Structures are given as structure tokens and as C-alpha cells.
From TrEMBL:
Keywords from the UniProt entry: Oxidoreductase
SUPFAM superfamilies associated with the record: Isocitrate/Isopropylmalate dehydrogenase-like
Protein name per UniProt: Isopropylmalate dehydrogenase-like domain-containing protein
Similarity-based family: Belongs to the isocitrate and isopropylmalate dehydrogenases family.
Organism: Aspergillus novoparasiticus
Record SMART domains: Iso_dh
Keyword Phosphoprotein: no
Length: 351
């Protein structure tokens, strides 16, 4: 098996190395394909996301993607298409998803004894639609800079695809309920279309409970009673925000993995950013990307190894002895990596 690696920037190289170590601790020895991205790609190709990089990701099919910096107030990226046309994206992260035709970002978030307080029983998967909404980046300045506007685009086809994926996932993994989060009481046409499409899809899955909730009410509810949610499906921006909130309830964004699913390629990334303020200090929490690596193995057919990594993480986190500073500990990235790797070998019976 070949696995692509986008090392990213900020803490990306450190937590990528940690993820590789843990995957190799399972006994799997993939062919690692280190694919240049951002500054590395600029040096080689003169562009942070050239067609050669997109093609290499498509060729490996599964790719670990470490965090990439998304700058405030700027960071747009323009990509040339095969027909010579040009498309502009709001960030390099958005560009990767859309150039690869990735359509849903599942973020599985669960609680842990010790780190999650009274949210320790939380166990949800947030299905975030990632092709449209306000994150398409269609903005413009008006009135000589005195005003600005952005377009919120929602289509029936994208709403159907992400809703169908959520229900299929629920059925496959024995989940009981899918909840649609929206603001259709105000955004009648856009969020309304998303909700109406979700309800159409839900009728095709009578074995799965379906309900919906306004996004603001859902934020309140998840803090009060996270067990109220099982599978969540929502629009791009809401999913981005809601999953960070849920990660905070778990104890840290450093515990929140993520996947970006496409029809022909997928990337596996942590829900958090590049954290340049702690890059190189050796204290970044690698667990989110390690769990994303476990998701990769599960998608690639290595269920036993994926489950071993997830169980190893649970043991290390719930033991409460080897925590990085984001979890109120003082351990290093390497110490967490070594502890998880040791547990993986123990679970799988490797010496």
C-alpha cells in the first residue's frame, strides 16, 4: 500500500512524523509518498498547489494531510484547470478539497474519561458538506470599502450527496440517528433547500431516526447533553464551527480527527490548524492526526490495525499520565507518540 503525506507547515511536519510512527507500529509498512505542498511546492513548481501535486494525490488515493496555514484577511489561491480556465479559492485547504472533488468532511469526536469531564460519553460523527456554502469564497467589496457581501450557495445535488452519505454511514456503522443542523428559520431558501433535501433523503431510510435542529440551539444542546447527537449532517461553515465546539468538549482540538471523502481520492487530516506559535517546540498534540491515520487504515481495509490505534489512544489519554500542554499536561509530542506506539504493539501482539 502507498500512502501520500502532505507534511504541511507549522506543527505539521512534527505530527506527520508521529502519525507515520504509529501506523508503522501496527506492522504495516506502507510506501510513503511525500508530496510537496505550499512552500515546498513553490520551490519545485512555482505554485503552492500545482496540477502535478493534485495528480500525485489522486494517484495514491489515500493521503495524510497535516495542517496548512490559512492566513487571516488574505490567502486566496488561483488554480489553472485542464481546459486553461482559472478558478480562485479562498485558501489552500479549500483548494485541495475542491480540486480533488472531495465532498464530505466526517469528523468523529468522542469523549474520554479524565479529559472530557461530564462529556466523557460523547460519541458523534459530524458530516460537514465541503463543496459550497459561504466557503466558496465568492465575495466582493462595495461602496468604496464601506460594505462587503458574500454569496452563500447551496445546491440540491450537493445537499443530497452529503445527506445520503450520512445515512449510509449510519446504517453501515450501526448508528441510530441522523440530525440535520441548519438555520432555515432565517435563511429560508439556502438552509431551507438543505433541510428539505435532507428530509427527502431521510424518507429513503426508514430504519434510521432523522431529526433537525437550528444550529444555535444545537450548540447549546451539545454542551448540555452531547449524547443527544449521533450522526450530524450540516453545511460547510456550521460544520466547521460545530466540530470545533465538540472538540473543546472532548478536551482539546488535539483529539479531533477528520477525513475528506471524494469519489476517487480522500485526505485524512486533523480538525485543528497549523499552530505556528508552538511549531518546533516539541509539545504539539499528535493525537488528532494519529486518529486520522487510523481512519485512513479503516478506509483502506485494515480494520484491525485501525481499531488498535483507536484503543491505544484511549488507553493513553484515559491513563492521564502522558498529556501534552493542551490537555493540561507537560509531555512532549515524542512521548505521546512513543506511548501510543507501545500500546499499539501490545494490542496487536507485536514485540
Amino acid at each position: 500500500m502507498r500512502i501520500g503525506v502532505l507534511k504541511g507547515n507549522g506543527i505539521g511536519p512534527e505530527i506527520s512524523a508521529a502519525t507515520i510512527c504509529v501506523i508503522e507500529a501496527t506492522g504495516i509498512q506502507p510506501g510513503w509518498d511525500f508530496i510537496p505542498i505550499a512552500d515546498e511546492a513553490v520551490k519545485l513548481y512555482g505554485h503552492s498547489l500545482p496540477p502535478q501535486v493534485i495528480q500525485r494525490i489522486k494517484d495514491v488515493k489515500f493521503c495524510i494531510k497535516a495542517p496548512l496555514l490559512a492566513e487571516k484577511l488574505h490567502g486566496r489561491i488561483t488554480c489553472t484547470q485542464a481546459d486553461g480556465s482559472v478558478v480562485t479559492y479562498p485558501s489552500i485547504n479549500n483548494a485541495i478539497r475542491r480540486e480533488l472533488n472531495l465532498f464530505v468532511n466526517p469528523r468523529p469526536i468522542r469523549g474520554y474519561v479524565g479529559s472530557s469531564g461530564h462529556h466523557e460519553k460523547m460519541d458523534m460523527v459530524i458530516m460537514r458538506e465541503i463543496t459550497e456554502d459561504t466557503y466558496i469564497g465568492w465575495e466582493k467589496t462595495l461602496e468604496d470599502g464601506a460594505a462587503a457581501e458574500a454569496i452563500k450557495r447551496v445546491t440540491r445535488s450537493a445537499s443530497w450527496k452529503v445527506s445520503q452519505y450520512a445515512f449510509d454511514y449510519a446504517r453501515k456503522h450501526g448508528r441510530k440517528k441522523v440530525s440535520c443542523l441548519h438555520k432555515a428559520n432565517v435563511l429560508h431558501e439556502t438552509d431551507g433547500l438543505f433541510l428539505r433535501t435532507f428530509q427527502e433523503v431521510a424518507r429513503l431510510y426508514p430504519d434510521i431516526v432523522a431529526d433537525d435542529m437550528m444550529i444555535d440551539a444545537a450548540c447549546y444542546s451539545v454542551v448540555r447533553d452531547p449524547c443527544r447527537f449521533d450522526i450530524v449532517v450540516t453545511l460547510n461553515q456550521y460544520g466547521d464551527i460545530f466540530s470545533d465546539l465538540a472538540a473543546g468538549l472532548a478536551g482539546s482540538l488535539g483529539l479531533a480527527p477528520g477525513v475528506n471523502i471524494g469519489d476517487s481520492a480522500s485526505t485524512f487530516e486533523a480538525a485543528h490548524g497549523a499552530a505556528p506559535d508552538i511549531a518546533g517546540t516539541g509539545v504539539a498534540n499528535p493525537i488528532a492526526l494519529i486518529l486520522s491515520g487510523a481512519e485512513l487504515l479503516a478506509h483502506a481495509g485494515y480494520a484491525r490495525q485501525a481499531e488498535a490505534i483507536q484503543e491505544a489512544v484511549t488507553r493513553v489519554v484515559e491513563a492521564g499520565k502522558i498529556w501534552t500542554p493542551d490537555l493540561r499536561g507537560c509531555s512532549t509530542t515524542q512521548q505521546v507518540t512513543d506511548a501510543i506506539s507501545m500500546e499499539v504493539r501490545s494490542i496487536l501482539g507485536h514485540s
